[in-house]
Every structure is written in C-alpha cells, then in structure tokens.
Predict the structure.
Amino acid sequence: MNTLRITTMALALLSATDLALADDMNMKDMSMSGPRADKMTGKVHHATGIVKKMDASAGQVTISHGPINSIPWPPMTMTFAVKDKQMLRQVTAGEKIDFDLVRSGKDQYTVTKISPAHD
Ligand SMILES: [Cu+2]
C-alpha cells in the first residue's frame, strides 16, 4: 500500500469519527464540560461574531458571537484569549468577523484565527 492511500484512509476514518461525535453532542449533551467535551480538545470550531472590544496587553478579545453548533453554544457575548496578540492588530471594535476557536481548558476556548466576515 502506498503512502497516499494510507493517508486517504486515515483522513476518511478521522472525518467519520468527527461526524459521529458531532452527532452525539447535538443529540444528547448540551453541556460544555465532561468526558465528551474533553474529546473535543484540538477540534477547530468556526464561528461568526461582532468584535465588542480588544485588550491588547491581556491578549483578549470580547466577541458577540452567533450560535456555534459544534460546541454547542447559543449566541452570547464573551471574552476569549487569543492565540497570538498580533491577531488583535487586524480587528477593530464593531467589526463583523469570522473566527476559529479551539478548546484550551475546562469551559475555556482560545481564538486561533480572525478574519473579516465574508458577507
Ligand atoms: Cu460563547
């Protein structure tokens, strides 16, 4: 079996696991903690929101975000740590953004990517 084939199979397995997990979360578990949430560590969630404020020295951004079904979260306003403080140079308060977040602790998520919203 060549390398490409093995990689393709591994990717197929990965996405099947992801889908099963997401399904399980949506159906039964609305909480953000516990063993199920632990399995989500490392998974990148995508969301949209409006920047409320930035704290460059603390490396934090407050975002009024829409629903994030993959966690799952309803819409809310909350403050996140950012992976890299430089990311805050690219945003302004009131701006509509697309962003990525990754679980970084119990009930804690870190924003790993911010870009202007597409629409
Ligand atoms: Cu939230």
About this structure: Residues 65, 73, 76, 78 surround copper (II) ion (CB under 6 Å). The CA atoms of residues 40 and 103 lie 7 Å apart.
